[in-house]
Amino acid sequence: MAARTPAAARRVSSETAVRHPRSKLLAFAGLCALPVGGAVQMGLGGQSWLPLLAYALLSVVSVLLYGNDKRQARQQGQRTPEKVLHAAELFGGWPGALVAQQLFRHKTRKVSYQAMFWVIVALHQLFWADHLLLGGRWLGSILAPLLV
């Protein structure tokens, strides 16, 4: 077995290590505070635990999808369509997707992908801010004509 050069060892370790883990963990916690807080409040208020369950389950699904897509990208196999990744994020898997992006260093450079990802995150933040601060009145008034 050939010995690894110092440059190759640095390249391998930099490909697998998350850069700036403390600041990213703090940002992740901040982004998750509103959705998790809102979902817990819904559950404790007797409405439904489904949002919290969806965030957990779809985050796991997102991590698995990203991991598989990264593996397929390396092996030049059949990739997971971006719309499937975005659908998992939209239905609640964005926290897992954010972790997977950093863990696998995957889908972090494609600007169009990142733009849609952050729109999805912003939609979740907006929904929970409306739910927690305004009791859902703002989004409810906007969406009511569309749902009739």
Task: Give a short summary of the structure.
The chain has helices spanning 6-16, 21-44, 50-75, 82-104, 111-134, 137-147. It is mostly helical and 148 residues long.
Kindly describe this structure.
The chain is built from six helices and no strands. By secondary structure, it is mostly helical. It has one domain. Helix 2 (21-44) packs antiparallel against helix 3 (50-75) and helix 2 (21-44) packs across helix 5. The radius of gyration is 18 Å and the shape is globular. The termini are far apart. The mean pLDDT is 87.
Key words describing this protein structure:
148 residues; mainly alpha; 6 helices; globular
How many beta-strand elements? 0
**Structural class label:** mainly alpha
> Average pLDDT across residues?
87
Task: Determine the N-to-C terminus distance.
Answer: 68 Å
Radius of gyration: 18 Å
Q: What is the helix/strand order?
A: HHHHHH
Write the layout of secondary structure elements.
Layout: H1 6-16, H2 21-44, H3 50-75, H4 82-104, H5 111-134, H6 137-147
Helix pairs in contact: 2-3, 2-5, 3-4, 4-5
